[in-house]
Each structure stands twice: as C-alpha cells, then as structure tokens.
Amino acid sequence: MISFSQWGNELYSGKRSYNIVGRGKRYLMVGLSLMVISIILLAARGLNPSIEFSGGSQFIVTGAPGASQKVAYDTLAAEGLKENIRVSSLGTDSIRIQTQSLDTAQTKTLRADLADAYGVAPDDVQTNSVGATWSQDVTKKAIQSIVIFVLLVAVILTIYFRSWTMSVAALVALAHDLVITIGFFALVQVEVSPATVIGFLTILGYSLYDTVVVFDKVRELTANFQEQRRYTYGQLVNLAVNQTLVRSVNTSVVALLPVGSILFIGSLLLGAGTLTDISLALFVGIVVGTFSSIFIAAPVLSMLQGKREKTRAIDTAITEARSKTVEDGSKHQDEAVVVGTRNLTPGRHLGQSAQPKRKRKGK
C-alpha cells in the first residue's frame, strides 16, 4: 500500500495525476446543486437568529448543577410565555433562557421565579435585554462586514494576480462556501449569533488562502505559457492542483482537529452551547472551503481563461498538433511534442526511458 508521503511525491512529480480540471463541469454541477439546495433551505426554513439579531430578553441561570431545560419551560409557561422561547444549556450547571421583549416588572418577576425553580439565589440569574433598534443595527453591520470583505478581496486579488479571471474564480469559490455554509445553518437550525458571523469571515479567509496557494502555483506554471506548445492552459492548471493537493489536505486536517474537538467534545459532550455557533461555522466552512479551492476555483479559472482569444489559439494549436501526430503515427516528430502529448494522460508516467539521454564522452 502506498504511503501518504509517496502519494504526495508522485502527485508533485507527475507520476500520479487526477484529472480534476478535465472533469471540472461535474464538480461545478455538484457545487451549483448544493448552492441551489442551500438557497431553497434558506428561503423555506430561514435562519435561527440569536437575541442580538432578533431582540428580546435573556436570562442566564448559573450555579445549578444538573439544570434541566424542562424546568425553564415550565416556569415560562406558568408566566404565560409560550412563544419565541429558546432554552439552551451552557456547560453542566448553567441554563440560558431567551424570550420576547419583557418590561421591567415582567423581568423582575420571571427572574425571581427562575431562581426559585432552580434553587439558586436571585443574584445567580443574570438578565439583559436587546431592543429591536439595536438588533437591526447589528444585523446591518454583519451584512456590511461580509460585503466589504468580498469587495476588498476582489480588488486585492486583481492587483496581486494581475488577472481578472483569477479574481472572479476566487470570488465564485467564496460565494460557494458562504452560501452552502449558511444553507447548512438553515438546515440544522443552529443559532446564528455575532460569533457565527465571525466564523463566516474566518472561513472565507481560510478558503481564500487555500485558493491563493493553488493560483500561485498556476501562475508559476503558466509564466511562459504563450512561448510553449506542449501543454494547454487547463492541463497546467490541473498540474498545479495536483501539486498542491497534499498541502490542501494536510492544512485542512490540521485545522479541523482543534475545531472538531471544540464542536464535538465541548458542545455535544459538555453541552457548551455558546461554542456551537462559531465552531460549527468553522468546521463546515473548512470542509467546504477545501472542496471549493480544489474542485471549484481551479475549473472556473480554466474555463474563464480558456475563453480568452490568445489562450484559445494556443490550446487549439496544441490540440491540432497532437491530433496530427496521432493520425500520422510518425516516429520522426519533434521529441518535445511527443513527450508533451504522452505526459498529459492522467495517471500515467513515462518512466526513465522518456528522460533525455546523456551522451557519453569519448575515452
């Protein structure tokens, strides 16, 4: 069985290759389908906004080991509060209760009832209220932060790569990551808080970083693209993806380990509800971002660049030269063309016989 390091070396050298760009339309259809499903989920179910976005009153009961959520629901029902109620566990001895906006008298009464129900002092029940105006401002700022981030990314990428095709391909990958991650939150109905927005911005940064690494390799391999007649642009992009594939996998695994620990150990086993929003956003975003940088950004770049006149002309010339070589079956073709043609088959390796032969010096 091949080792991981050997697999990586073979990908980088070209001995092993996956035709990712060649099958790019399939991956783009998968990504587009997931985006459409996410949009449908968002429209049908909507998000589950936290109190910072929706407004209302919040009570946090601390110092109640083994606190049951049912006690909170029963207490609220006794006060006639049955709609827009959210109860969640914070660790092992705290409960968070969110309700509709209450006036001062209602807040004081409910605070005392919760203290009695859980057997704690009134000072152990913290209260705060978020008005509708403040929550609208938070929502507006959250949307603005994402929009500003995307606009800055578009400008910086265009300046950095000096190529609008790379900038557009990276933005398509970012849109893919953001829509699918939001759609997943609409599916599972996990609370969306300001921390979740921070998680969204973080995963966009992670996805962008991963895409930039791939595009840097593309730029390196295509630096003399117009002067060569061996590889089409799409094949060079595919080589760049294969050469950075191991790095993308390693980076994602390393990033997922701590995030997964927070999500599954902290949130599920210990009931640390305050960590679920940001950790889930990071976990889903890293997985989706890794997929997009490899299977979405690279194929989109190849398609956009392939429609440009100069690139299309070179690709056509290379394709015609290969077709002529195959039809003629001649063994006297230029060696660079023959080697370039054979070396482009994914998964094949030419071996030592294809390497240039060194002439022996006379004795």
Class based on secondary structure composition and strand pairing: alpha+beta
Q: Any idea what the CATH superfamily of the largest domain is called?
A: Multidrug efflux transporter AcrB transmembrane domain
Biggest β-sheet: strands ordered side by side in the sheet: 3-4-2-5
Number of helices: 13
* Fraction of residues in helix: 55-70%
Number of strands: 6
Q: Please indicate the count of domains.
A: 3
Q: What oligomeric state is this?
A: single chain
Can you write the helix and strand succession as a string?
HHEHEHEEHEHHEHHHHHH
CATH topology category name of the largest domain: Multidrug efflux transporter AcrB transmembrane fold
Q: Indicate the radius of gyration in whole angstroms.
A: 28 Å
Q: Looking at the structure, what is the overall shape?
A: elongated
CATH architecture of the largest domain: Up-down Bundle
Instruction: List low-pLDDT spans.
Output: 330-350
Output the keywords.
363 residues, alpha+beta, Multidrug efflux transporter AcrB transmembrane fold, Alpha-Beta Plaits, 3 domains, 4-stranded antiparallel sheet, two-stranded parallel ribbon, 13 helices, 6 strands
Descriptive report:
By secondary structure, this protein is α+β, with helices and mostly antiparallel strands. It has helices at 4-13, 24-45, 51-54, 69-78, 104-118, 132-161, 164-188, 194-221, 233-269, 276-295, 297-306, 309-328, 335-342, and strands spanning 48-49, 56-61, 86-90, 94-99, 125-130, 191-192. It folds into 3 domains: 14-49 and 134-306, Multidrug efflux transporter AcrB transmembrane domain (Multidrug efflux transporter AcrB transmembrane fold); 56-130, Alpha-Beta Plaits (2-Layer Sandwich), CATH 3.30.70; 309-343. It has a 4-stranded antiparallel sheet with strand order 3-4-2-5. It is elongated and about 95 Å long.
